[in-house]
Amino acid sequence: DAGVTQSPTHLIKTRGQQVTLRCSPKSGHDTVSWYQQALGQGPQFIFQYYEEEERQRGNFPDRFSGHQFPNYSSELNVNALLLGDSALYLCASSLIFTSSSSTDTQYFGPGTRLTVL
Amino acid sequence: EDQVTQSPEALRLQEGESSSLNCSYTVSGLRGLFWYRQDPGKGPEFLFTLYSAGEEKEKERLKATLTKKESFLHITAPKPEDSATYLCAVQDHRGGATNKLIFGTGTLLAVQP
Q: Do B49 and A105 touch (CB under 8 A)?
């Protein structure tokens, strides 16, 4: 059973460029969440996708956008890159939370290390 | 505002020396508390979910407990391979239909042989 996969593993960009990161969820999962983790910090929630729609967004600017495809895979796009966008970007998959669900644990992928020069 | 505080920031143990990591949280209504292990440059690896005060879960040398204000991750007779950053995260009932996680900054554990 394949876990969460992300691509690419590493990426180097310059300020002002745009980047697209990709994520394939764990088999059977329908929800994808994206997190940003700066060095020495805990992951920070960016947004979550379910049924190809953004369900909730964290405190991130509109430069961060995303998409979910019919096969549940997802992309994270960041425009006009800043030096401060350098971080480990994590994708997590889960089942959508319902009042009756007992397991909506998020499982993380290996991450994409983005360096902005 | 929801908040998660982990202590200590870093912990150095000798192999076999048991200890505990602390996670204090402030949420309007706790839906779940999660422990993850993260190795350098890797994604967090799920360890435990706790839902209600008094709940305990165990896995090998790790045991997680939960009260109304904090959680502890007890490490019994640790080995060098237990060295990692341990992250605590909470889900708030106010999150509604999303299950976003609010993380602490983690405890960096180093176990020396």
A: yes
The tokens for B103 are 């993380």
What CATH architecture is B3-112? Sandwich (2.60)
Give the pLDDT of chain A (117 residues) as one tens digit per residue. Answer: 679 999 999 999 999 999 999 999 999 899 999 999 999 999 999 999 999 999 989 999 999 999 999 999 999 999 999 999 999 999 999 987 665 555 678 999 999 999 999
Query: Could you tell me the residue ranges of all domains in chain B?
Result: 3-112
Sequence-ordered strand ranges (E) for A1-117: 5-7, 10-13, 19-24, 31-37, 44-50, 53-57, 64-68, 74-78, 87-94, 107-108, 112-116
| Residue B12, H or E segment | strand B10-14
- Cα of A109 to nearest chain B Cα, Å: 6
